[in-house]
Amino acid sequence: MAPFIHYTLLFECHADYFECHEVLEEAWQEGGRQHHGYAALIQYAVIHYHLRRDNLIGAKKSLRLLRQKVDVASPYLNKLGLDVEAFISQLDEWPLITTLPLQQEVRKTVEALKPSFPTTELSFEELVHKHLHRDRSDVITERELALLERQRARG
Questions:
Q1: Exposure on the CB side of residue 14, measured as CA atoms within 13 A
Q2: CA distance 59 to 63
Q3: Phi-psi bin for 36: left (phi > 0), alpha (psi -120 to 50), beta?
Q4: Which is more confidently placed, 96 or 22?
Q5: How many other β-carbons are positioned within 10 Å of the β-carbon of residue 109?
Q6: Is the distance from CB of 62 to CB of 50 less than 8 angstroms?
Q7: pLDDT at 136 over 60
Q8: DSSP string of the chain?
Q9: Counting C-beta atoms within 10 Å of the first and last residue's C-beta, which end of the chain has fewer, N or C?
C-alpha cells in the first residue's frame, strides 16, 4: 500500500496520528528526506496528536511550522492526491478538520479500502498516549554509539 494511502486510512479510520507520523517518516527517510509533502503531512499529524492531548501550545507551534513548509510542499501534496487549496484553507479552521481533502480519484481509492482496513485494537487512552508506549531501544542504542564515537574522536 502506498504510504500516503496508508497514512490517510490511519488518519481517517483510526485517528492514529502517531502511527500516521511513523508511516510517512519511514517513507520520508527512505527517500532521503526529499519529499516535502511527506514532511508537511507528518507535521499535520503532529498537530492533531498535540490537539488530542490538549497540548495547545505544541499544536499551534506545529501549525506555524507547517505553514512555513506548505508552499514548498504543495507540488508534492498535489502529486500525492491531496486537494492542496482545500488543505491550506482548512489550516485556518480551528479545531482542524479530521478528514483529509483528497482529489476525487484518491478519495474513491480510500473509500474503497476503508471497509477492509483492519480496525485498531487500541483504546482511546492508548491512542492519546501512544508515544509513551513505543519501543525506543533502537534510538537509545544509536545515541549511545554516537556518544562513544564522539568520545573516541576526542581522544
A1: 23
A2: 6
A3: alpha
A4: 22
A5: 16
A6: yes
A7: no
A8: --HHHHHHHIIIII--HHHHHHHHHHHHHHTTT--HHHHHHHHHHHHHHHHHTT-HHHHHHHHHHHHHHHHHHHHHHHHHTB-HHHHHHHTTSSSPPSS--B-HHHHHHHHHHGGGSPPP---HHHHHTGGGSS--HHHHHHHHHHHHHHHHHH-
A9: C
Asked if 32 and 3 touch (Cβ cutoff 8 Å), the reply is no
128: pLDDT strictly greater than 70: no
Q: Residue 54: name the closest of 147, 146, 143, 129 by CA.
A: 129
Prediction pTM value: 0.80
Task: Name the β-bridge partners of 82.
Answer: 102
The number of C-alpha atoms within 13 Å of 74 and in the hemisphere containing its C-beta is: 11
| pLDDT at 131 (0 to 100) | 65
The answer to whether 129 touches 17, Cβ cutoff 8 Å, is no
Q: Can you give the pLDDT at residue 113?
A: 98
Buried b (16+ CB within 10 A) or exposed e, 9-37: bbbbbbbbbbbbbbbbbebbeeeeeebbb
- Alpha carbon distance 135, 33 (integer Å): 23
